[in-house]
Design goal:
With 138 residues, the chain is mostly helical. The chain has 5 helices and 2 strands; from the N terminus they run αααααββ. It has a two-stranded antiparallel ribbon with strand order 1-2. The mean pLDDT is 78.
Amino acid sequence: MVDQHQAAQTRLLAIIAFLLVGFALCQTYAVTMPLAAAAVVIAAVWPVKPWLERFFPATLANIGTVLVLFVVLAAFAGAISFSVARVAQAFTELRQAPTALPKPFRLGPKLGRLDRQRRKFQPCDRHGGKGARCARLT
């Protein structure tokens, strides 16, 4: 009996802790995301330092590791800027030729069908003939 009670209590505490950690991460997103990204980049570059220490003194190995880190960050920034440029170019092309959308995104036939359905409604005399439309089909 005590084991079941303790197991249930442990599960509930784990759920509460999970929710609190999730809430804390959401509230500190502006701080935790750059730190997490920095940790991933450093972990990716860290094996370079011991490799460089086999060939160079420790100071040069540290400088080389930092240079490799800058190269990785520059490649990352270049990839992001290239992606943003491609998206901007695609939006510019779509603005110039809206019919160039892929077939699932074209709205022409659907809008045409809606326009045909709208024309089925006639102006109503009850509203003074001011163009008001009622749900009276012809």
